[in-house]
Specification:
This protein has an eight-stranded parallel beta sheet with strand order 3-16-15-10-9-8-7-4. By secondary structure, it is α/β, with parallel strands linked by helices. The two termini are 24 Å apart. Helices cover 32% and strands 20% of the residues. α4 runs parallel beside α5 (171-180). It has helices spanning 77-88, 104-113, 135-140, 142-155, 171-180, 219-232, 246-255, 265-268, 272-286; strands at residues 5-7, 10-12, 16-18, 40-42, 59-62, 65-68, 94-99, 121-125, 160-163, 185-188, 192-195, 197-198, 203-204, 210-214, 237-240, 259-262.
Length: 300
């Protein structure tokens, strides 16, 4: 039984990775899950300088999920290179580095710093809804998506995955723009913009007012968008959005995703990624599927 998949020339032992921002760089979760069991680990966003993130409170629970406005808090590329990459290299898994920035120059700075580092893929986050400085603007304008993709691609040594925002009228327009700019792969969806109000305090639950909604409630939207994008472009897709179980992951794969990322599930079940890997294998055995490629995009 073959569970290997290929994203832009990088072979994963199975199609399961982590969603950026939900797994740190794996250090916290390595107590629960042997990271070598995962196809890849996708890191939290890394910027060219340390980012403090947004003021608190910045997480709120909601029906079927959560809303966050962390604001991409991270210690910056220097700490990441010195601390996190050596940690991840202890494990037999691929490393996907999520790159964030406020300007095109910020992204290029990080991408160039990572050029000689032993990481496998770069996920370019042009779609975080909680950063006022323009992350969302990049992700909502197809011309900007194409331009930043082309610019990052010119400087990147590793293949680039463009992470798309669902907060758009037509996701396929953004996917085609990223493809035109030279993206090697796509990941979708990032969070949906949401809001929660505390009726007793009569104030916003998050200091940022709005935040990114994730969790099971967004899954039907995410599956639909992955399906649409798989029909519209030729690039491999990493699908994400509310994956809690192997059954959820398989929906994305059948819709056209080559790989899947587990995010919010990690917060209430630190074993979620391992369980998804094992569940996909069990499904393949049950239905006599010899190669996972038989399932990718099987629903037309």
């Amino acid at each position: 039984m073959n569970t290997k998949v290929n994203i832009a020339g990088v072979e994963f032992k199975n199609p399961v990775t982590t969603a950026s921002g939900t797994f740190g760089s794996g250090t916290e979760y390595s107590e629960f899950v042997d990271l070598s069991l995962l196809g890849a680990v996708t890191t939290k966003g890394v910027a060219n300088v340390p980012w403090p993130g947004n003021p608190t409170p910045r997480i709120a629970e909601t029906y079927g999920g959560m809303i966050n406005a962390i604001g991409l808090q991270n210690p910056g590329i220097d700490v990441f290179v010195n601390r996190d990459i050596p940690f991840l290299k202890q494990y037999d898994t691929k490393i996907i580095v999520n790159v964030c920035g406020k300007t095109t120059e910020d992204y290029i700075d990080v991408v160039e710093r990572l050029g000689d580092q032993p990481v496998d893929l770069l996920e370019i986050n042009i779609s975080c809804p909680n950063v006022k400085e323009g992350g969302i603007a990049f992700g909502q304008d197809p011309k900007a998506v194409e331009a930043i993709t082309r610019e990052v691609k010119r400087h990147a040594k590793q293949p680039i995955i463009m992470k798309l925002s669902p907060n758009v009228t037509d996701i396929t327009v953004m996917a085609k723009a990223a493809e035109a700019g030279g993206a090697d792969a796509l990941s979708l969806i990032n969070t949906l913009t949401g809001m929660k109000i505390d009726i007793n305090r009569r104030s916003f639950a998050l200091a940022n007012k709005t935040g990114g909604m994730s969790g099971p409630a967004v899954k039907p939207v995410a599956v639909r968008m992955v399906y649409q994008v798989a029909q519209a472009v030729k690039l491999p897709i990493i699908g994400m959005g509310g994956i809690m179980t192997a059954e959820d992951a398989l929906e994305f794969i059948l819709a056209g995703a080559t790989a899947v990322a587990v995010g919010t599930a990690n917060f209430h079940n630190p074993y979620a990624t391992k369980e998804v890997v094992e569940g996909i294998e069990a499904y393949m055995r049950k239905y006599g599927i010899e190669d996972i490629k038989e399932l990718i995009g099987a629903v037309r």
